[in-house]
Design goal:
With 212 residues, the protein is an alpha/beta fold. It contains 8 helices and 10 strands.
Length: 212
């Protein structure tokens, strides 16, 4: 593997809701953007809305659908439709759920884990999902978990929780996750802030450049 590939840390901008959010994402070109399908979330966007937003998205950017305890058949249907490229499971979905979803689609699966103690890290390491995401609470709160627990990780992971343009550089430098995931950290008054989006992406790429 080339050194550049080894040091590249991927970026996911989550909770996008408006065409202007997509326009900025296309300029910044993160690796992933996230659309929230959980109706109880203030960032919820309907499948019809996501379809419109996905049509505006640069084809090289992966669209991730974020689900919370959704019917497995519905998740598979959205993946098969091409509206989203990956599924992020942010609820109580267990190994049986993941196995069933794998039987319905070949698309990648991210399983999110709320980290409070070492046992949560152990569960993440044992997951059969393609990727795991580590967050605090139910996600999207902007709160960070005890990062010292990351010492127990033995697989690549998405790091979320408490990240913003001012904190992500240090997180990248110290922990070198597979990817960083942000939502509230790039918002102002509950909406995505183009300047914060840019600063976040620049902070990650600046730190990654030092790792090469």
């Amino acid at each position: 593997m080339k050194q550049e590939e080894k040091s590249k840390i991927k970026i996911k901008l989550c909770g996008l809701m408006r065409p202007s959010d997509i326009e900025m994402a296309n300029l910044l070109h993160p690796d992933y953007v996230g659309f929230v399908f959980a109706k109880k979330s203030r960032r919820y966007v309907s499948p019809e809305r996501v379809k419109t937003l996905k049509e505006l998205l640069h084809p090289d950017i992966m669209a991730v659908g974020v689900f919370v305890d959704e019917e497995v058949e519905a998740v598979a249907a959205w993946l098969s439709s091409g509206i989203i490229d990956m599924a992020q499971l942010h609820g109580r979905e267990d190994e049986a759920y993941i196995k069933k979803l794998r039987g319905l689609t070949k698309q990648p699966i991210i399983k999110a884990f709320s980290v409070r103690e070492e046992r949560d890290i152990e569960k993440a390491c044992a997951s059969t999902a393609d990727f795991v995401l580590l967050d605090a609470g139910s996600g999207g709160t902007g709160n960070a978990f005890d990062r010292e627990l990351l010492a127990g990780m033995n697989r690549p992971y998405f790091l979320a929780g408490g990240l913003d343009p001012s904190t992500v550089g240090e997180a990248v430098k110290r922990w070198r996750p597979y990817a960083v995931d942000v939502s509230s950290g790039i918002e102002t008054d509950g909406c995505k802030d183009a300047e914060k989006m840019q600063l976040f992406v620049e902070s990650v790429r600046m730190e990654v450049g030092k790792l090469r």
